[in-house]
């Protein structure tokens, strides 16, 4: 880790975001602490201002770690699935994470966020989960979906109902001008074709010392450890990257360039002809987690995205009609 920090530091921007992901990154907390010590030491000499983020299931958070995260002003992403937490993850984790959420206000230097993953069996708890998190003043709430399973019409209907109920309860945020905490319902950016930023303004270092365009591709390779995935998307080791002067193989950059919304497709149709093309986005490796084919989007993703876009637009039209 020390060598990687030293080798990669000259290629960082003036205010880089350093993210620690897993697995569970807090299993290697000592390594995280050492990496930050190295980064901070080099930053003082170069006037670089690193920012830090950590994604965790919360099971290993304790006062010592929370104090460290606060001291370094971490953004903290907690994986939290609401009432279905104990069924979908480890039993007892709901109580532990609820306690962590209640403890976080005592650490104002930490910027908390949550990611809640719903599937067809659990999507009925979506509105209650959002209400629970809003009540605890979580400023950023991300709603994600399990795309490795089919979504029957009844589950999609429950998703619509849950988002509509959550949106109705969030109108006060639009009234006051505050950011809506549910990221999926925030005012959308200007319409445009989504292009995945992997390999463009970010890199990910895996446990074997190899570099990828994004940590999501590390997860994708774990799920599909094929030679072609390694060949197409891995930039090689840190030493390879430095020898190339920070200029990765253009063929690999071209492979990452294929993560465009207008080049994607489902098994039913290409995305290029969709009326919602300029309002939709996807994570290429996450979408390909089941099929193993980057650029192939699960049909469930398409149907869920249409629902999210529709409910987000309804929310902001309602807010506009109310004069907010």
Molecular structure report:
By secondary structure, the protein is α/β, with parallel strands linked by helices. The chain contains 14 helices and 8 strands. It has helices spanning 2-8, 29-46, 63-71, 85-88, 93-103, 126-135, 153-169, 171-176, 215-223, 227-233, 238-243, 250-256, 284-287, 299-321; strands at residues 17-20, 51-56, 75-79, 111-118, 141-145, 204-205, 210-212, 234-237. The strands form 2 sheets. Strands 1-2-3-4-5 form a 5-stranded parallel beta sheet, covered by helices on one side. The protein has a 3-stranded antiparallel beta sheet with strand order 6-7-8. It starts with a helix and ends with a helix. The model has no long low-confidence stretch (mean pLDDT 91).
SSE diagram, text form:
Layout: H1 2-8, E1 17-20, H2 29-46, E2 51-56, H3 63-71, E3 75-79, H4 85-88, H5 93-103, E4 111-118, H6 126-135, E5 141-145, H7 153-169, H8 171-176, E6 204-205, E7 210-212, H9 215-223, H10 227-233, E8 234-237, H11 238-243, H12 250-256, H13 284-287, H14 299-321
Parallel strand pairs: 1-2, 2-3, 3-4, 4-5
Antiparallel strand pairs: 6-7, 7-8
């Amino acid at each position: 880790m020390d060598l990687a920090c030293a080798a990669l530091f000259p290629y960082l921007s003036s205010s880089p975001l350093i993210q620690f992901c897993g697995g569970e990154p807090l299993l290697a907390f000592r390594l995280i602490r050492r990496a930050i010590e190295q980064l901070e030491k080099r930053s003082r000499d170069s006037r670089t201002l690193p920012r830090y983020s950590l994604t965790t299931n919360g099971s290993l958070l304790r006062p010592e770690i929370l104090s460290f995260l606060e001291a370094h002003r971490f953004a903290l992403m907690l994986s939290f699935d609401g009432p279905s937490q104990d069924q979908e993850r480890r039993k007892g984790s709901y109580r532990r994470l609820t306690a962590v959420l209640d403890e976080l206000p005592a650490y104002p230097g930490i910027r908390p966020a949550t990611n809640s993953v719903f599937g067809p069996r659990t999507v009925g708890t979506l509105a209650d989960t959002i209400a629970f998190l809003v009540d605890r003043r979580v400023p950023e709430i991300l709603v994600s979906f399990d795309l490795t399973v089919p979504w029957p019409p009844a589950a999609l209907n429950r998703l619509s109902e849950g988002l509509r109920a959550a949106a109705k309860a969030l109108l006060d945020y639009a009234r006051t001008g505050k950011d809506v905490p549910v990221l999926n319902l925030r005012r959308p950016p200007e319409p445009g074709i989504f292009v995945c930023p992997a390999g463009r303004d970010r890199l990910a270092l895996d446990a074997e010392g190899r570099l990828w365009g994004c940590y999501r591709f590390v997860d994708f390779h774990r799920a599909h450890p094929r030679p072609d995935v390694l060949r197409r998307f891995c930039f090689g080791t840190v030493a390879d990257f430095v020898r190339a002067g920070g200029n990765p193989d253009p063929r690999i950059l071209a492979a990452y360039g294929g993560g465009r919304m207008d080049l994607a497709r489902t098994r039913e149709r290409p995305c290029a002809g969709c009326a919602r093309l300029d309002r939709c986005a996807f994570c290429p490796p996450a979408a390909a987690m089941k099929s193993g084919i980057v650029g192939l989007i699960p049909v469930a993703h398409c149907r869920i995205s249409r629902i999210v876009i529709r409910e987000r637009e309804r929310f902001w039209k309602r807010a506009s009609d109310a004069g907010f």
